[in-house]
Amino acid sequence: MIRKTIYFLALTLLFVANQQLSAQKPVKNVIFLIGDGMGIAQVYAAMVANGNKLALERCTYSGFSKTYSSSNFTTDSGAGGTALACGVKTKNGMIGMNPDSVAEQSILEEASKNKLATGIVVACAVTHATPASFIAHQVDRGMYDEIAADYLKTNIDVFIGGGRKYFEQRTDGRNLTDELKAKNYQIAYNIDDVKAVKEGKLAGLLYDDQNPGMPERGSMLPDATMAAIDILDNNPKGFFLMVEGSQIDWACHDNNDKQEIKEMLDFDETVGRVLDYAKKTGNTLVIITADHETGGMTILDAKFGSDEMKAVFTSKGHSGVPVPVFSYGPGAEIFSGFMENTSFKAKIEKLLKLKK
Question: Which domains does the chain have, with CATH numbers?
Fold first, then answer.
């Protein structure tokens, strides 16, 4: 009798699990959020300061990503971003290429070729290493003019961030905003103009170079993210959007825990709004991770609800430790456990059923 009962319970649990999986909608949209330099300590510092809570906690699955590059145990954002975007390990400093300097197609480019809408929203110049890894193919991350020109070679629908001068004040004399207008892009130079655009193509060049840090830039990142989603959501086939909380990294390079918390909370506000959208649609996969950890940060003592804490940094640079992965929505379960940073692309390809 006991064996029959156990057998029946096992069958019931299996049935319920299968019903839950079958009830999930297919993945239509993917929103990939990258907290540059965001390790576990960076997340927990913000959580502690925010009264022991973050929107990130709403994610249903978590794991870790291994961040080493092809040339170094400790990656930079070029190689780290390229691994996330293109699914290949490359040398530090390279963008959208394998170690032999051969261009690799990014998940954003692949989504675009499959007629999905695509977008990038960042709290830095759109030519910086992480966004560049999804759009450009250059041997050196510092080739900002060349990276800006690579935007003209794609069919990306929306990109928002800083870096206006790399489009308009170039050594080659080209004015890329004029060329973007010729390709039917609407050009926005401030967040209000970004929010006014509801359809079509949009290039939001909100700052001459890099975006200011928090709190100076205000709600630019969450507002621009939702504005991008509003536009991309017009595509009936779905969309792929990459969002970067860029300046978590910069604060940690400065070993400034209070600024790191401000940047992390801004990123988490963005995460919260994205999760609200994903919950409402039911067909949106949200993935949150980092390209690397910065500063070798740890917390020795703190008080919940305060940014006054005993935070210790072991470096002004990056560390080689794995970084956290959080996920929510259909397919989120395959982003749990330990994984290589090169594995994200193939998993997203499969869920979106993309053809290479």
Answer: 34-305+319-352 (3.40.720.10)
pTM of the full structure:
0.93
Spatial CA neighbour of 275 closest among 55, 88, 51, 47: 55
pLDDT in tens, 176-232: 999 999 999 999 999 999 999 999 999 999 999 999 999 999 999 999 999 999 999
Catalogue the active-site residues.
77
CB atoms within 10 A of CB 199: 13
Give the Cβ contact number of residue 91 at 10 Å.
20
Q: In what order do the strands lie in the sheet with 284-289?
A: 185-188, 201-207, 158-162, 117-125, 239-245, 29-35, 284-289, 323-328, 61-66, 337-340
pLDDT band per the 50, 70, 90 thresholds, residue 353: very high
CB of 163 closer than 8 Å to CB of 148: yes
3-class SS of residue 85: helix
pLDDT, residue 2, reads 53
Q: What is the DSSP letter of 17?
A: H
Q: Among 95, 177, 83, which residue's Cα sits nearest to residue 136?
A: 95
pLDDT in tens, 39-93: 999 999 999 999 999 999 999 999 999 999 999 999 999 999 999 999 999 999 9
First to last CA, the chain: 54
